[in-house]
User: What shape does this take?
Amino acid sequence: MKLGFIGAGNMGGAIIKGYIASGAGGAKSVTVFDRDAEKLSAFAAETGVTAAQSIAALAGLSDAIVLAVKPNNFEEVLPELAAAPLGERLLISMAAGVSIAHIEGFLGGNAKIIRIMPNTPAMVGAGMTAVSRNKHVRDAEFERALGIFASVGRAEPVDEALMHTVTGVSGSSPAYAYIFIDALAKCAAEEGMDAVQARVFAAQAVLGAAKMVLETGVDPLTLRQNVCSPGGTTIEAVNVLLRNGFEDNIAEAMRACIEKSKRLAK
Assistant: This one.
């Protein structure tokens, strides 16, 4: 499948790089357009993708077009996309808060639209992408789209009504994890560990914990209890976290993220 990306920012760039690195598609199967010509030229030189000079040119070179622009740029981009002959091409949007129905309003009721919510770990093959579609996307086409994003991590079909929740639980949550890793590493450095080594220890511990959840099938609460020996060091730390509202803070932050996504949709 020939992929076209409108936008080569942090998220779009992460997916492009991850997709190429995965071997699912070579750089020459990807075309990119960005209004910032200097940034586009640098990105094409770095990755080997084809740089398109216009949205219409990109559409002509693509089987599926990924909208990787901010929601506030949609009102500018969608009319140009509507003017291009889309035909049977898939349109894949990753904008938070922009519904399939809103895009259909610009492109017409017959447009084949897929909405995704990815995250930046796609750059290293560890992304999590939620995928929804409208009724015009056939099963085989949807499976191909799932395959694109599975090549850079995991991809799961999700009802579009859950996209706000997905934004909070996986789209934005790498940022929450970075705060946790940074706090662990800084404390370790203050306690005498080399700062670079401390970051490695902290990040690997979080990576390992995540793999335990995914690969053992054991729920996180049980895994936590398994680590906490009575009277031991781990339970001492966990009790401090719980006493200071660690779980409540995470839930409050996630709900703030979800509510922001809902406001963007309006």
Notes: The beta strands are 3-6, 30-33, 50-51, 64-67, 90-93, 112-117, 127-133, 153-157. The chain has two domains: 3-162, 171-265. The radius of gyration is 21 Å.
